[in-house]
Design a protein that fits this description.
Blueprint lengths: L2 H4 L1 H20 L10 H21 L14 H16 L16 E6 L5 E7 L4 E7 L12 H16 L14 E7 L13 E7 L12 H12 L2
Antiparallel strand pairs: 1-2, 2-3, 4-5
């Protein structure tokens, strides 16, 4: 049984609310006007429009009204690079998926009490989600996490699904840049960086500065520390 079937009645009002809010956002709301506030609102409109235009220019929408392309390609690629870290990084919960030896991204999930466990992952060609749980709301058992219970099933399917496919990496859209950054500070790499990672950014949002080592400040700190 799918999650949609299992929680259909509970999810239906939420889906309807989200649908209405989404329509409001893109079409604009029609609100009743208070005659006493009309003059004030007219005075504020130019300021509000200017502020909104400035905000939209600085932070353009990362999603669209088109149901076939809800978020921009650049935003989707950034999310993919983060979700690939779940699998590629040594501390990632989806590390076992590296066995597939294919460019993939994904995320494990586990609810409190181990009632639900899932792994949702994808390659450039296939997206698959695996969920485990009981219809009568009981625990799967202590330690039955998404990585332990769901990921092996997902991995087994994805191996078979990709057997006759040519390996393809995720396409990098225009407007994406890659930068080496310090994993501890999140800034550009400096001479003192110990952990360096290469991270994708939407052009214009990448770090512009690094934290350089200040020898004089460090010596002052040591003198103060040893004098105590």
């Amino acid at each position: 049984m799918s999650l949609d079937d299992r929680f259909f009645e509970q999810m239906q009002p939420w889906d309807q609310t989200m649908k209405e809010k989404r329509e409001e956002f893109f079409k604009g709301r029609k609100e009743l006007k208070d005659p006493l506030k009309e003059e004030t609102e007219l005075n504020e409109q130019p300021k509000l429009k200017k502020a909104a235009a400035s905000l939209n220019k600085k932070f353009p929408l990362f999603f669209f009204s088109d149901p076939d392309q809800l978020i921009s390609e650049k935003t989707a690629f950034i999310m993919t690079t983060l979700l690939r870290g779940v699998i590629r990084e040594p501390q990632g919960t989806g590390g076992a998926a590296r066995e597939i030896k294919w460019p993939i991204a994904g995320k494990t999930g586990t609810t409190n009490g181990y009632y639900d466990a899932w792994f949702i992952g994808y390659s450039s060609q296939i997206a698959v989600g695996v969920w485990l749980g009981f219809d009568d709301e009981k625990t799967l058992g202590r330690g039955e996490t998404g990585a332990k219970a769901a990921l092996p099933i997902w991995l087994n399917f994805m191996k078979s699904a990709h057997e006759e496919k040519e390996k393809e990496d995720f396409l990098v859209p225009e407007g994406i840049v890659f930068t080496n950054i310090d994993n501890e500070t999140g800034q550009l790499v400096s001479t003192q960086s110990k952990q360096i990672i290469r991270q994708a950014f939407i052009e214009g949002t990448q770090p512009q500065e690094g934290e350089e080592f200040n020898e004089e400040e460090d010596q002052d700190f040591l003198r103060e520390d040893f004098s105590q």
